[in-house]
TrEMBL record:
The keyword Oxidoreductase does not apply. Pathway: Carbohydrate biosynthesis; gluconeogenesis; Carbohydrate degradation; glycolysis; D-glyceraldehyde 3-phosphate and glycerone phosphate from D-glucose: step 2/4. This is Probable glucose-6-phosphate isomerase. Keywords: Cytoplasm, Gluconeogenesis, Glycolysis, Isomerase. It is found in: Cytoplasm. Belongs to the GPI family. It catalyses: alpha-D-glucose 6-phosphate = beta-D-fructose 6-phosphate. It holds the Pfam family PGI. Its EC number is 5.3.1.9. One of its GO terms (cellular component) is cytosol. It comes from Haloarcula salinisoli.
């Protein structure tokens, strides 16, 4: 993985940072790295996530999925960190990524249509919940289970569960003797992609999960007291410095369809980890070159409150652009789609820099297991570093609990402070 921060540096960039800022920041990175390394050493909550490449046992995951490894489809029932990591890995690396279907919302029409569209007898169920209590996941699982039973399909033969020791899901595992994989200790869900939380569907769909962990392990070996030695820390440091300079938005724009879910996974990691105490960059998901034709106008000529993170693999499939009888298309002559996409990438980075808008480039040697493993780990290390530099609590997400209590109260009819606030919320309808 290569990081290029050239388009974020210099006096022209607004917001921008210069090399002196980075030199200065590097002292803070050294101190932060000490805390992170100690946290990893002691297996402390959150920091333990950066030990996963060493601690995740791919053999155990393969053993757990063995009963369903020939399934035509994998249906993941989970939300947030319990779905996005797995989806990111299968979307990036599976030969047939569409064989991995996720239910990470409770939209009845969508659930119904999804279940009707799947051969349930040939669809493995991957249920994931760290807490084992998430309403959406449990409700969806009950709906899925009923659909299998209605279809006369024995769901217990097709289900793999990843959850903690206690809770409704753990009890189901006991009751039906289901294969269960543990959630890693001390690892928040959004940091758990490189564990059983994220690796069951990739294992079922034949992804090289060992290579993924090796790539992550290589990135882990690169973590040291200087941002100049680690692309992950460098990315975190530059984002932190740009946020301090006013880059309140981080638009993440992969130039590969297979990395579209990576932007979604990153959005949870960045927002839920760093959105605290009135600070934190807002991650915006975009896709290159598609969103050049929808968002770029804003990124280039809108408020100077953004940075853009572009990501691309250096290797691309070879799809030639056919000759055309129109002279006006002669500029395609001999080019392939990969060259066009890379030209769009280079042009977009240059157009942002030309307009003084900071962009950071992340390049992968190849979109292979090692490359994706390195990318995910580097982004996790970047997030942990920003949390240290900003001196915030990176590993919890207390602000999401109010809404959960309110929803549960509304459903159960229990009157609580939250449900009263919901009932009294301001309304000004215009029909
Ligand atoms: O894995 P669980 O406990 O079901 O939680 C799912 C997601 O919900 C959150 O707790 C937020 O509500 C995320 O942090 C987490 O990834």
């Amino acid at each position: 993985m290569h990081l290029d921060i050239g388009a974020a540096l210099g006096d022209e960039a607004d917001p921008g940072v210069d090399e002196d800022d980075l030199e200065e920041l590097d002292e803070q990175v050294a101190a932060a790295h000490e805390t992170i390394a100690a946290g990893r050493e002691n297996g402390e909550f959150g920091y333990a996530a950066l030990n996963l490449p060493e601690e995740t046992d791919p053999t155990r995951i393969r053993e757990a999925v063995e009963p369903v490894e020939d399934a035509a489809y994998v249906l993941t029932v989970g939300i947030g960190g319990s779905a996005l990591g797995a989806k990111t890995v299968t979307a990036a690396l599976a030969d047939e990524p569409d064989r991995h279907v996720i239910l990470d919302n409770v939209d009845p029409e969508h659930i119904e249509r999804t279940l009707e569209g799947l051969p349930l007898e040939d669809t493995a169920i991957n249920v994931v919940s760290k807490s084992g209590t998430t309403a959406e996941t449990l409700a969806n699982f009950l709906v899925v289970r009923a659909a299998y039973e209605d279809a006369g399909v024995d769901w217990t033969e097709l289900t793999v569960v990843t959850t903690g020791e206690s809770g409704p899901l753990a009890e189901l595992v006991e009751e039906h003797d289901l294969p269960r994989l543990p959630v890693p200790d001390g690892v928040p869900g959004r940091f758990a992609a490189l564990s059983s939380v994220g690796l069951v569907p990739p294992a079922i769909l034949g992804v090289d999960i060992e290579g993924l962990l090796e790539g992550a392990s290589a990135a882990a070996d690169g973590l040291g007291p200087s941002l100049f030695d680690s692309p992950g820390y460098a990315y975190g440091a530059v984002c932190y410095a740009l946020e301090e300079e006013g880059a309140a938005v981080n638009a993440v724009m992969p130039y590969a369809e297979r990395l579209e879910y990576f932007a979604e996974w990153f959005a949870q990691l960045w927002a839920e980890s760093l959105g605290k105490e009135g600070r934190g960059q807002t991650p915006a998901r975009a896709l290159g070159a598609t969103d050049q034709h929808s968002q770029l106008q804003l990124y280039r000529a809108g408020p100077a409150d953004k940075m853009v993170t572009v990501v691309r693999p250096q290797e691309r499939a070879d799809v030639q652009i056919p000759e055309s009888e129109h002279d006006s298309l002669s500029y395609f002559a001999g080019a392939d789609l990969g060259q066009l996409l890379d030209a769009e990438y280079d042009a977009t980075v240059a157009s942002l820099a030309e307009a003084g808008r900071p962009a950071v480039e992340i390049e992968l040697d190849d979109l292979d297991a090692e490359g994706v493993g390195e990318l995910l780990y580097a982004m996790e290390a970047a997030t942990v570093l920003v949390g240290e530099l900003a001196d915030i609590e990176t590993f919890t997400q207390p602000a999401v609990e109010w809404g959960k209590r309110a929803a549960r109260g509304l459903l159960s009819g229990e009157e609580t402070e939250e449900t009263r606030t919901v009932a009294e919320r301001p309304s000004y309808r215009i029909d």
